[in-house]
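#help-structures

NK: newbie question. if I give both the sequence and a SMILES, will the prediction place the ligand too? trying with magnesium ion
OV: yes, paste both and it writes out the complex. here, I ran yours:
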Amino acid sequence: MLNPLYRRATFTLGAPTVAYLPPDSGYEVAFAGRSNAGKSSAINSITGQKALARVSKTPGRTQHINFFELEANLDPTLNQGRRLVDLPGYGYAKVAHSVKEQWQAALEEYLNTRQSLQGLMIVMDIRHPLTPFDQQMLDTCHHAHLPTHILLTKADKLSKGAAGATLQQVRRTLTERYQTEKLIPPFRGGGALAHPAPEATPSPPEDDAPLPTVQLFSALRGIGIEDAHRKLDEWLKLPTPSDPDAINT
Ligand SMILES: Nc1nc2c(ncn2[C@@H]2O[C@H](COP(=O)(O)OP(=O)(O)OP(=O)(O)O)[C@@H](O)[C@H]2O)c(=O)[nH]1
Ligand SMILES: [Mg+2]
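OV: that's the protein plus ligand as structure tokens.
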């Protein structure tokens, strides 16, 4: 059972810069990822609406920060609201260097200061996962203690076996990157203790900096929509069917 609120999502605002964001109340989840990865398509399939977010074959289509409200008719003076946010894609080659730098700074400000932001859905084309831009995004979120969930989208482009293998590989890479970091204490003058053996007991991740989670997705074939909903329900604090095994971590 999917929460019917998603189907009722409506476009409320396209903000050209972070200066024009709607009030910072309630809960929101942003979709980030490389240009053309499939962010807008993911939002459409998650909300069960064909043309809520604009999809295009031309990279760089989404240039504003677009807000989709799940609860229409809200009283804006109350601290409420549940929003999905479609961010402009990163890594779009045709954008001037200065524009890219401005956007990067604005994005970091948004990630670091937006109180209602509960987590980031990072959308990656399964055929090109974890590009340097994606790694940078994950690092930025990790340091901002912002939870991340990766949609490996366009899974329909690979065989089931190849998609599963990529999923495992991405999981391994993320565990190595973000758990190993926690295993190595700050360097204090060398000696064997400065770099404990990898088999040393892993310290649990910091409470507010959870490891990224990852799942397969396809907007075209409707793969992974329930898993994505479960993660969104958790972040947006919506009631969800109880099935703890359904989200792949
Ligand atoms: N085969 C397949 N194609 C997809 C899927 N999702 C998106 N696409 C295609 O990928 C292209 C880009 O999709 P968008 O959703 O516009 O991508 P975006 O990340 O929002 O792109 P920007 O707004 O430019 O950053 C379009 O041609 C989509 O039809 C999918 O799951 N499978
Ligand atoms: Mg888009």
